Amino acid sequence: MTQSAYYGAITGWGQGVPARILTNHDLEQMVDTSDEWITSRTGIRQRHILSEDESNFDIALAASKKALAQAGLEGKDLDLIIVGTCTPDFLFPSTACLLQEALGAENAGAFDLEAACSGFIYALSVGTQFIKTGAYQRILVLGSETVTRFIDFTDRNTCVLFGDGAGAVVLQSTIEKSGLGAFKLGAYGAGGKLLNIPAGGSRTPPTAKTVQERQHFVKMQGSEVFRLAVRAMVDSCVEVLEREGLTIADVDLLIPHQANIRIIEAVGKRLEIDPSKVWINIHNYGNTSSASIPISINEAIESGRLQRGMKLLVTAFGGGMTWASGLIYW
Ligand code: ACO
């Protein structure tokens, strides 16, 4: 591929997280589980969840406003809005279109992109391509999820794992080497049923029966997903580093999707990265699907852990199955 003159620098960042918190002790009152089981098997201590009057759009908007302010831009400056989400407010209009109106982004195109937990890296790679071709200069990219709205709070296998949240970044065109470099997007459709919501789409529309059978909730074969996730995240990270001509020692910070502390640790170990370079915040948020990486980026910057000039490796795995990794020049 011809080298582009343009890079998509990340110039703004922000997160939107519901104020309401659900702790492991709260869950002990709801299903047959324990703080000890959840903490030791997943690393999660609490998660933020939507209140009844909140939606995906609300947290996406909060994250977007912060990211735009950080970048010194207004909605009308945007050329495009891409929202990675598998839990939108509606099948349509898209969450991106809801944001387009609320931000006054009168010059922007807007669409949602669905790649489950890998959605942010997928969306970041798509947005970056629009900048690399020279088509667009300023793009808002989000991962925004409200998975708890699709969780069966009587199923202990899934209800302890997920939280809600949104993270946004602004990409701006520059000729300085910056933003997303090499990336790898992967998919394994044959594994789709390992993690899915069986009903509610056009194949099985909602009926009294589907509701009664609880088919509108997330179903997951956790241990199989676990095994696939580690392999795909590691292999795609190795490929990305090779394509950038880097080794793992060159990476200043690894931000893996926050699905399970044991997946994070297994990925870090197999990549042979210094554990102090692996970002972990799953204890506070649980699995926020596509939002986990942009929330982590926001926190890593705000805490001073991620600084200009650093090389950031991001990697995710999710429903589909999908996976994605990328090297970001910060
Ligand atoms: N509390 C207590 N016991 C539990 C709980 C709970 N919350 N959940 C499950 N158990 C029990 C099971 O019933 C089982 O009991 P049994 O042996 O009597 O049948 C036992 O614990 C072990 O269950 P496993 O499923 O084998 O537990 P495992 O160690 O694999 O951990 C987990 C389960 C945490 C789900 C893990 O497999 C995992 O994290 N998987 C990956 C999840 C993931 O990465 N998803 C992808 C992203 S999500 C997305 O894309 C939307």
From TrEMBL:
GO MF term list: 3-oxoacyl-[acyl-carrier-protein] synthase activity; beta-ketoacyl-acyl-carrier-protein synthase III activity
Domain free text: The last Arg residue of the ACP-binding site is essential for the weak association between ACP/AcpP and FabH.
Name listed for the protein in its UniProt record: Beta-ketoacyl-[acyl-carrier-protein] synthase III
Reactions listed under catalytic activity: (2S)-2-methylbutanoyl-CoA + malonyl-[ACP] + H(+) = (4S)-4-methyl-3-oxohexanoyl-[ACP] + CO2 + CoA; 2-methylpropanoyl-CoA + malonyl-[ACP] + H(+) = 4-methyl-3-oxopentanoyl-[ACP] + CO2 + CoA; 3-methylbutanoyl-CoA + malonyl-[ACP] + H(+) = 5-methyl-3-oxohexanoyl-[ACP] + CO2 + CoA; malonyl-[ACP] + acetyl-CoA + H(+) = 3-oxobutanoyl-[ACP] + CO2 + CoA
Subunit note: Homodimer.
Family that this chain belongs to: Belongs to the thiolase-like superfamily. FabH family.
Main location: cytoplasm
Residues in coiled coil: none
Subcellular location: Cytoplasm
